[in-house]
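Hello forum,

I keep getting stuck at the same step: I have a sequence, I want structure tokens, and every attempt I make locally crashes halfway through. Rather than fight my setup again tonight, could one of you with a working pipeline run this one for me? It's a single chain of 530 residues.
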Amino acid sequence: MSPLISHPHAISIVAFSADGPVTRQQFLSDAYQLAEKLPEGLHLLNLCSDRYHFSVGLAAAILSSKVSLLPPTQTLEVIRQIRQFAPDVFCLTDNKQSPEGLLRFDYPAMLKAPIDEIAVPEIDEKQQIAIVFTSGSTGIPQPHPKSWGGLVDSVRAEARRLEASESSVLIATVPPQHMYGFESTVLMAWCNSLALSHAQPFFPADICDALASVPAPRVLISSPLHLRTLLNSGLEVPELQHVMSATAPLAEEIAREIETNWNCPLTEIYGSTETGQIASRRPTRSPAWQLFPGIEWIVENSGVQASGLHIDPPVLMNDAIEPVSEDLFLLHGRMADMINIAGKRHSLSGLNHLLNSLTGVLDGAFYMPDETSDVTRLAAAVVAPDMDAETLLAALRKHLDPVFLPRPLLFVDALPRNSTGKLPHSALKALFQEHHTWTVPTNHPAFPGHFPEHPILPGVVLLDEALQRISDKHGIPPDRFEISSVKFTSPARPGDRLLFQHKTQPNGTMRFDITSGPRKIASGSISEKS
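Reply #2:
Ran it on my machine without issues. Output:
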């Protein structure tokens, strides 16, 4: 048996809600009151966006022996599959939107203040309190049950690595419905006498406001995306005791800049949905990760398995892991993201790490198109407002074999990352589909006469392709456009892969650019006829 929360006194602060500090006494009272009101179903989908409401909902579910379901996304298809898995599931929510087809239960607007002192309940360590789902290789969510004892072991080990004091307050940019947020922003607070903040800020100014709204010492729990954005904002960040990052490796240069500018240590956490958190590292001190006490690797021909502590049976890891000692290891990316181009191998995670470490790149990701031909080329999307393609490719060329240089290289205002900072392959694919590419056919009928032995695609063909793409995007017939200006900079030849991009200007005109790798082929502007 282990206590639901470890806070020693009835007046110990468990959380900071929108109304202020919440004592252990009030938290337990809220949880018991909510437990009495919950519907009869065994399975609960906790979609509360307020982290304090989520934590009360989780505690109420545990007290009433219900199981909280944590799916990877909340799309209609995933919710449909969750309903098939648990037909009795109901939704606990504190916002207006909730999935269709589920019994909806609104978080109570007002819970009574406690009168008598409430003892901290003891929870059976074997009790299943949650089922966390991964997307699965087939797209069908795969369930991973989590017991109370296993989760307690994991978050206690995590807190020891952070060296957080009992008065520390956890402020997080990641949602509690994700495994990282579930463990690090809620359970770690419960099991280590820490306090959690109700807020889930996203933008830099909101993060600073959330930090300033709670007393020091503060621990910021975040992801590389949020940390880079906050660092680049130039805002004054309130005093921090520690910064935690997960979901993707953080470039050493970014980690060093964070520790220098914010005057606090930064720790990265490693784990998976299947295992929970199992290791950590200080990237400014060493590239190696250190396993939590009690966790060990089992190295076999089939791969590397994690075992021990709360992991039973052993779990085969999906990452390329290189043990360097009994408890230290190097991480070389996911096994599934290894790519082979012209006989040369690299990992997408390694390429992304390099791309995001370049000065001037605010965010970026490589993308392997769903093609199987021998001429398949990597693409990349970047947020780098002060760079051009030639400069960025030159920086990559210093570190990469030419076969891994991205063609095309897409410059965007933002990448379609989810709330945890992850970038689903489907979202990246959709991004590139929005910005059409076209490989110039080697047998295009214009080439024989334009020009023999030196074929060049006529400018009128380029303009027609650009107009058609803009027409398809906006649903405006091509003959409704007129060309305001156009400039041809470089010839388009057979086999060139062209990238068409356009952007609506404040005055209503549309500027378009046609590029092939670092070369600008043509640019211009069009407007709709009045």
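Residues 371-375 have pLDDT under 50 and may be disordered. If your local run keeps crashing, start a new thread with the error log.
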